[in-house]
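Exercise: predict the fold of this chain.
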Amino acid sequence: MAVDLLLGLQWGDEGKGKIVDVLTSNYNIIARFQGGPNAGHTLVFNGKKHVLHTIPSGIFHDEATNLVGNGVVIDPVIFKKELDKLEEQNVDYRKSLLISRKAHIILPTHRLLDAASEASKGKAKIGSTLKGIGPTYMDKTGRNGIRVGDLELADWKERYRKLANKHESMIAFYDVDIEYDLAEEEERFFEAVEVLKSLTFIDSEEYVFQAQKNNKTILAEGAQGSLLDIDFGTYPFVTSSNTTAAGACTGLGVAPNKIGDVFGIFKAYTTRVGSGPFPTELFDDDGATMAKVGHEFGATTGRPRRCGWLDLVALKYACQVNGVTQLMMMKGDVLSGFKTLKVCTAYKYKGDTIKHLPYNIEPENVTPIYTDFEGWSEDLTSMSEASQLPEALNKYIAFLEKELETPITIVSVGPDRKQTIFRN
């Protein structure tokens, strides 16, 4: 049985958590394959808002198994907080949550290293979430990391101490003013580790292989967005993992020929958190309206998101890199009330007009070229059928489908799982 993928196609915050929650009833297993607590997947149902950072978004469905894959990095302290909130909701996560032994652990000193590194960059900072993600992946590739499976070893605390001591010497090297009480941080960390050790650890690649062999349906859930991919994103303003379809293969141990549908999630406009180039960013009333109506604040950091018109050049690039088979458009309701909508269909790049994403999209090199569309005034939030969508929105969707050569099968018209329109 093939593994389907669900990915963000922009700079994250596209609404992946909601769609995973909507689609979970079609799958036996929901599996996170990369990233860590820098993710913020928001789900709304029964009048309540839920934010998940590391735990897969299928956790609220009793019949689904949720797997944290080997490509994920886990902060035990944040993970424990997520579990505590699930307990408050009477979610029996112990029977449905599995952790890969090969997933790496974020130590308290990883977070401190993150803060020291970012502080040392001054104005050149990349906008890190300061969750310790980058330093943890650096230890992973440097072959120094501590993995979940190490927690089962008798000497894991000695391994921890050796690595933490190394981190402290590195923090001192940065020579920045970072105040911390490591003893206090470690007390919380070791308490949370004991909670993590009470869960089920598995050899996840074997588990996934056997599940496929037994015709179990699997949905791989991505975090962040394709334009934040360490290889294909707007480097260096990216995350530390592969957020594209290839990351699902390495982050779960899935063979490339076992990938099925690739669901690509995008907003009807574009947002970005933190630093980095953003060709269609708005600094006027339209941008302010998008931010206000769309409640554009990071689910993890609380930072305001930068807003702009839809960048079709970047979106087409993300579809190509990922091999997207179906598109799902989020927050179409936020654009209600705009008389005119703009879509960036090409760039003026160093004097030439291009329709592909170039190596550098800094503002001195790129000027967006826009196509205008008639807006719509109807309130979409109470609509439940594709036939109810306004004509102007249908024209907008049809144009995007033609340009991207991919069907838009879902249109989201609000944050609640019920505010989801299936087009095909």
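Check your answer against the key: Residues 382 and 404 are 28 Å apart (CA to CA).
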